[in-house]
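W.,

You were right to be curious about this one. When I first looked at the sequence I had no strong expectations either way, so I just let the prediction run and decided to look at it fresh. Below is the sequence, 361 residues in total, followed by the output.
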Amino acid sequence: MFRVLMMGIFTTILTLALTPLVRLLAFKVGATDKPDKRRVNKTIMPTMGGIAIYLSFFIAIFFLQPIALSVSVPLFIAATIIVITGIIDDIKELNPKLKLLGNVAAALVIYFIAEVRMDLVSIPIFGDIHLGIFSFPITIIWILAITNATNLIDGLDGLATGVSIIALGTMAVISFFFLGGSNIPVFIMIFTLICAAVGFLPYNFYPAKIFLGDTGALFLGFMISVLSLYGLKNVTFISLIIPITILGIPITDTIYAMLRRYLNHMPISSADKHHMHHRLMSLGLTHKQTVLTIYGVALIFSLIALLFPMTTIGGTVLILVALVIGLELFVELIGLVGEDRRPLLKTLKKIANKINKRDNP
């Protein structure tokens, strides 16, 4: 493990060295974000920064870490498809359908070549459920959902990078301490990806010198979705909700964005400035304060996820109920769906008014 740790440190240094070169490349090929009404940057910023994370990660996996080629090669092929899709989008802004096609192609490589998929679900009371033909759509949807949810939160300096590091860190802890020795290769890959992302964060945190771009946000989301699948081949109720909880920030932002657009009669794929980070900034938080606040919420999700392997089914249900109520309160407080759509807060206010009238007739 000492060798793994040292190679991880080298991976971080490698990313630190590669990122300035990628920054120069981004300017040269025109992979830049220009200020507009949807963006928070005030100057032209280079994107495509995810290339540095991608390169340092796979250099480490192929040459530094003890990962079998049977695992690393299919993962490399799939990730390369994702990165190429991101690069093209960062330079030319791909049609959403073409971007989705690239994501699907990468997911197919994971399913058919890497053979990483969900096959069986074990649910309390109902027992084991073999997914059969449903294994394919469920696995593909999982990869696409997590990949694009991570991409969706990439709206502030260091936001997607930091949230991904927190999520990966929690996955590493669970993989190492709760999933047994057979998951050591998965732990090493997760740890290596963390080290690669940590090397990029100093350039990406506010005020950023380079953005992840779709190249990096799609790559990190894709890798998180695939690495989490290694623990979901035979899914239990607990192993299913752990990664969902760990990825609470991007999943919440995505679900409520879809709900918001549906209620406002807007296309689900349309862009707006009402994501979680936009709402927090509208409440008066600075750019850096908003990012740190979301980091804090991501850490809370991660700490909750760490409780699941150590509790009973009853305890898990209680934690989930408390999590859902707490999350809904947070979402309504910041007005994520809309300032006029706060059903739980309105209900609590009515109850409080009734109690107040009863106590003070």
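Here's what jumped out at me. The beta strands are 32-33, 45-46, 120-123, 127-130, 234-236. And, maybe more interesting for your project: Residues 2-29 form the longest helix (28 residues).

Coffee later to discuss?

I.
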